[in-house]
Design brief:
By secondary structure, the protein is mainly beta. Helix content is 10%, strand content 41%. The protein has one helix at 21-27, and strands at residues 2-8, 11-17, 35-39, 42-44, 59-64. It has a five-stranded mixed β-sheet, with no helix packed on it. A hairpin with a 2-residue loop joins strand 3 and strand 4. The mean pLDDT is 95.
């Protein structure tokens, strides 16, 4: 296990590697329903979250759909 730095929604974050996108969502206590993730500006399919591991200096953008009217 190695500490790494990632940038999540323009905020620096220290995490322990290995960490998958699914684990990051759980760590941030986010609901994965209606959520999309881009890693280094590339959208990652939800089915790939458990097997997509972050690397030092990765940039992650988490988008959540918001209902309103």
């Amino acid at each position: 296990m190695t500490p790494i730095k990632v940038n999540v929604n323009n905020q620096p974050m220290n995490v322990i590697s290995p960490i998958s996108l699914s684990e990051l969502i759980a760590l941030k206590q986010l609901n994965d329903d209606g959520t999309a993730i881009a890693r280094n500006a590339a959208i990652v399919s939800k089915k790939e979250w458990p097997t997509t591991y972050l690397k030092d200096n990765d940039t992650v953008d988490i988008f959540t759909l918001v209902a309103g009217g």
